[in-house]
């Protein structure tokens, strides 16, 4: 089976390509915005280096992408490409236009291929404490990022393709990039003196390990028969963001102080509580999160042990 992973040089894309590569009988085709091989997501075998493609969905021409897809002939496409920061053009190009272009190209070239697209919990907006968000919950994004991700989801679910959107909640684990809260906190702890300054950490989020996300994407790509249009992928538990800072501090044996009077994210401040109902993913994919937040944070710290301070 041939699976094309778009965004394979990014955090979740690297984990997904590695997870797929470990499955017998699966050939992984990797594509990213920048040329060159994707680095391994964690310890273990690197993704198959035999195919390395440059694809930028935000700028891609639908006809040109269709020609490339017809050439490759994938049985499934996993779209991990996207953007979490940048200006309005970048956010909407990567998260809204990109999935729409991909769907148009797939319809023209390989309409029978399974499409797995990574969405975001930001599409939901604020949750109500004590009430996990199921896939049929109204979507009320509070900012441009969530709105752009929702537009991408609607492009996929309305495409008529054999497609599923995995609505990923808050990833935390090895390889976390510096623009993510866990990655930024880990970097701060590595160069910290006695104080690490962060924003308010009182909000509640549902954290999921990137390796568990990769397992869900793999299961969705390889699953026989049709799947629901949207599936939540999360840890299934609301945790205060402070748990991430304290968990990383324990892993780092940090004896200093975490100061919450620094600058925080306005987007995060607008959403005080989120928790996912992950029962639909369990039923459709046989998937459940395997790793605890504590395990994910310990592995994040250990994986970056050789990083420069």
UniProtKB/TrEMBL annotation:
Lineage, top ranks: Bacteria, Bacillati, Actinomycetota, Actinomycetes, Kitasatosporales
SUPFAM superfamilies (UniProt xref): NAD(P)-binding Rossmann-fold domains
Family: Belongs to the NAD(P)-dependent epimerase/dehydratase family.
Protein name: NarL family transcriptional regulator
Domain NAD-dependent epimerase/dehydratase: 3-234
Domain of life from the UniProt record: Bacteria
Organism: Streptomyces carminius
């Amino acid at each position: 089976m041939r699976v094309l992973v778009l965004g394979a040089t990014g955090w979740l894309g690297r984990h997904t390509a590695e997870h797929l590569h470990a499955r017998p009988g699966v050939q992984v085709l990797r594509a990213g915005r920048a040329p060159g091989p994707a680095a391994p997501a964690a310890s273990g075998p690197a993704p198959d280096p035999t195919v390395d493609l440059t694809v930028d969905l935000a700028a891609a021409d639908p006809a040109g992408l269709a020609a490339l897809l017809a050439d490759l002939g994938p049985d499934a496409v996993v779209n991990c490409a996207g953007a979490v920061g940048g200006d309005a053009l970048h956010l909407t190009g990567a998260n809204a236009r990109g999935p729409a272009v991909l769907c148009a190209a797939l319809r023209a070239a390989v309409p029978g291929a399974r499409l797995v697209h990574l969405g975001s919990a930001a599409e939901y907006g604020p949750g109500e404490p004590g009430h996990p968000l199921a896939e049929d919950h109204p979507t009320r994004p509070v900012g441009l990022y969530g709105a752009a991700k929702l537009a991408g989801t609607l492009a996929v679910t309305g495409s008529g393709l054999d497609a599923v959107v995995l609505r990923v909640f808050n990833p935390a684990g090895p390889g976390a990039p510096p623009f993510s809260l866990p990655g930024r906190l880990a970097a701060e702890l590595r160069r910290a003196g006695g104080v690490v300054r962060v924003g308010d950490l009182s909000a509640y989020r549902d954290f999921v390990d990137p390796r568990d996300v990769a397992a869900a994407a793999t299961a969705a790509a390889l699953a026989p028969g049709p799947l629901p249009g949207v599936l939540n992928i999360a840890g299934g538990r609301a945790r205060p963001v402070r748990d991430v800072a304290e968990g990383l501090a324990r892993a780092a044996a940090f004896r200093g102080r975490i100061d919450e009077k620094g600058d925080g994210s306005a987007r995060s401040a607008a959403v005080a509580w989120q928790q996912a109902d992950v029962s639909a993913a369990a039923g459709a994919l046989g998937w459940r999160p395997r790793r605890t937040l504590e395990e994910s944070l310990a592995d994040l710290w250990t994986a970056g042990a050789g990083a420069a301070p």
